[in-house]
Amino acid sequence: MSSPAQPLTEALAHPLAQNAAQNAAQNAAQNLVQSVDWLAIAPPTIAAVVGLVVLVTDLFVKDTRKSVLGWISVAGLAAAALMLLPLVNGDRSTFCLTGDADVCSYTADTFTLAIQFLVLGGALVTALLSVTAVKDADRGLPEGEFWFLLLSSAAGAALLPASRDLATLIVALEVASLPAFALVGLRQGDRRSSEAALKFFLSSVTATAVSLMGVSFVYASTGTLHLTQVAERIQHVDGQLTTLAQTGVVLTLVGFAFKTAAVPFHFWVPDTYVGAPLPIAAYLSVIGKAVGFSGLILVTVIALPSYADVWGPALAALAALTMTVGNVGALRQQATRAYSAVRLLAWSSVGQAGYLLVPIAAAAYSDDPERSIGSTVAYALMYAAVNLGAFAVAALVGRTRSLNRVADYRGLYASHPLTALLLAFFLLCLAGLPPGIIGLFAKVTVFSAAVDAGLGWLAVVMAVNVVIALFYYLQWTALLFRSPEGEVVKHRVPVPLTAAITVTAVLAVALSGAPQLILRFADTGLF
Question: Which of 50, 31, 34 is nearest to 42 (CA)?
């Protein structure tokens, strides 16, 4: 029989047990809820929020005042870029594992800030070019959709270098890519634009499918998506899963090779650049590459350093093949062919992608892989400034010469002296010749990364390709100063276009005067 005190004891114990259970549940819930470092995620967040603001505002703005959407976008991208300044001193991370604060999904370190500056700065210049292009299109480009897609893509591109797990990496990659091929095909009633968008779409979908399959294999063999944990666990995979892990590594690398437009995954580039609105071609040539290369760096150097003997030789071969095919393709462009100027820049961008791959390949053989990666970042920043400048001048010439042939640039100095001098400077930077000092130093940095890693043969291939590139860059430069055919016609340059050319020119000249501003990335740690 139970004692008289037992019911009283049970009655007292029951509420205590309930309170203990409630406290345990609350503690568990608190462990799952994390504080968000809003300052760290501010740059991509601002771009995304402004994109939504533009989309909603488009519903209430009259057709005659749609231009305000462009200026809101420009202001939003400028604000997003300015939010990088408070992040310069010290690394910040957020969305970390509750059991391990060092394993996070978002990290704003030196590498992240450098790529985000490139992305947001490049998107800002693209927006300035687009203000004029959208106006010239005379409603051929739906303004609300155009600006929303551009800002969405820029937000994804800014998120990607901060991603430190494979899921966030793939999501950011697709947020950057999907709006981009919509932008390529957004021009209404243009067959070339539709064909370009289809080619870009097919290549993007293929890359995504291959990448996702590779990531799923890596996750199945390691049980984690965080890059640092993948790096630890993939070295100790169970013997039965070794083949699965190796296949996942290869497929992931192939998927990112598509995104970087490395040969033989470059087939979409020339036709896409020609069919896209010119500002979007400029965007793809710089921001699109930054997205692919930053993702490739994160996967290889952080997640898969133990597989350096696999991705090192593969990337070295891709680098040699890409720079050779790109430069030969640019060399074959005929000056009188329609859209030959854009095609030449497209093939040139493929060749430049080969140079960007060299330090990443060198990281597999180097005792200091961060220094090699720093060379890629420095070269990418140089390339972004001068290539956007070249596209800005191409946009100016394209306003009066719709076919945008290289031959159309003959005598540009007679009609627009300063613009011709700036284009010559941009081309000399891409060629690596004085006075384009930053182009020369950036190429020397890439050479050094290859030589220091023992890849002498790759440095020789790069030297040969630099000589090939000299021919078509100098040929185009010389054409600017030849006597014009016919009467010289001068016309007013729109303010946004002038601003875009000015911004890129100031950056290129400043970097040539003080190349240490970006070359320091080759000597300091990025992660």
Answer: 50
| pLDDT band for position 523 (cuts 50, 70, 90) | low
Segment 232-283, tens digit of pLDDT = 999 888 878 888 988 998 898 888 888 888 888 888 888 899 988 999 999 9
Closest CA to 80 of 122, 34, 111: 122
Q: What is the token pair recorded at 410?
A: 């003959």
165 - beta bridge partners?
226
Q: Are 94 and 42 in contact (CB under 8 A)?
A: no
Would you say 426 and 345 are in contact if contact means Cβ atoms under 8 Å apart? Answer: no
CA distance 134 to 336: 27
Cα 285 to Cα 293: distance, rounded to the nearest angstrom: 12
Task: Read off the pLDDT of residues 462-514 as tens digits, 9 standing for 90 and up.
Answer: 999 999 999 999 999 999 998 877 666 677 788 889 999 999 999 999 988 88
Q: What is the pTM of this model?
A: 0.90
- Residues in CB range of 523: below 8 A, 6 or more apart: 371, 374
Give, as one character, the DSSP assignment of residue 62.
Answer: -
Comparing 367 with 280, which gets the higher pLDDT?
280
* Residue (of 46, 305, 295, 360) closest to 161 by Cα position: 295
- The pLDDT, as a whole number, for residue 133 is 87
Angle at the Cα of 312 (from 307 to 314), degrees rounded to 5? Answer: 105
Rounded to the nearest 10 degrees, how much is the dihedral formed by the CA atoms of 222, 228, 232, 233? Answer: -10
String of DSSP letters for 238-259: -GGGHHHHHHHHHHHHHHHHHH
Whether 202 has a pLDDT exceeding 50, the answer reads: yes
- Which of 12-26, 101-115, 260-274 has the lowest average pLDDT? 12-26
Distance separating alpha carbons of residues 248 and 250, to the nearest angstrom: 6
How far is residue 23's CA from residue 27's CA, in Å, rounded to a whole number? 6
Residues with Cβ within 8 Å of 199's Cβ and at least 6 positions away in sequence, in order, are 267, 268, 271, 272
Alpha-carbon distance of 5 to 142, in angstroms, equals: 80
Neighbours of 36 (CB within 10 A): 11
161 upstream amide cis, omega within 30 of 0: no
Q: What is the pLDDT of residues 418-453, one digit of tens each?
A: 999 999 999 999 998 888 888 888 899 999 999 988
Using CA atoms, how far apart are residues 51 and 73, in angstroms rounded to an integer?
Answer: 7
- What token pair was written down for 247? 């296949």
Q: To which H or E segment does residue 484 belong?
A: none
User: What is the spatial distance between Cα 273 and Cα 184, in angstroms, rounded to a whole number?
Assistant: 8
Torsion sign over Cα 107, 111, 115, 117: positive
Query: CA nearest 377: which of 198, 111, 59, 134?
Result: 111
Angle at which helices 143-159 and 110-136 pack, to 10 degrees? 170
- Rounded distance between C-alpha atoms, residue 50 and residue 205, angstroms: 27
